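Anyone able to model this chain together with magnesium ion?
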Amino acid sequence: MNSIIKTKNVKSDGENAAVPKHIAIIMDGNGRWATKRFLPRFAGHAKGVKTVNKVVEACVNRGIEYLTLFAFSSENWRRPQEEVSLLMQLFRKVLVGEIRKMGENNIRLKVIGDLSKFDQDLQELVRVAESETAANTGLTLTICANYGGHWDIVNACNKLIAKGIGQGEITEDMLSAHLSMAYAPEPDMLIRTGGEARISNFLLWQLAYSEFYFTDTFWPDFDVQALDDAITSFQKRERRFGKTSEQVQVQ
Ligand code: IPE
Ligand code: IPE
Ligand code: MG
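re: yes, here you go
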């Protein structure tokens, strides 16, 4: 707890806030981390889970309200079958193993993405983990699994059509409200580890005004100091939302 960042001048909309209210992370570089060490790619994923635990704990300690992690994209099915099934096993293990700790840390778990493609038992584990943590009031931890930004937007459109919303009636607020992360404010900051500077079909709608932070560090090497470096970078930025710098400063 000694590394808590002091909050100052926190506004409810996150502007000028000392810590971002919502951090989203593309956890990339597990495979290259392992390959560099002559280890199988899976060793990188296993080490990556350890980083997840450390980053979640750090976010709890820093009073961050929402942490959203990209764990498996809708495009990741294209990987070798063996890697996909090892990733599924790891997801199972994490769900079973971490649920008690989430209770202790007052964490509310959410899993978003097209879960219908997962095995029934995994879908059931997700349902149990979500319902057991639903009343927790601390950090909302969202795991994006079989998630794709395209899927999310199309899904929202289909929900609106199913409600009988007619041509010309869809508004931005309505579409937002039907996205799978409608319960959270849009991310203030997106972190991508692993050196690539792309979104890879992550939260396409919700990242419209997020501050991007790219680091070459592979996800298994990302640590609490690296998280604090990202938060420090965020704190130095001026979020203008289309306005001029002068307008933002007089607010
Ligand atoms: C991210 O690491 C984890 C997943 C996509 C599941 P990668 O597995 O993409 O690692 P690299 O990019 O190959 O190093
Ligand atoms: C993005 O990483 C998905 C996750 C981190 C889960 P990828 O490694 O799959 O991204 P691309 O394919 O290199 O863009
Ligand atoms: Mg990758």
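The beta strands are 22-26, 66-73, 108-112, 140-147, 189-192, 211-214.
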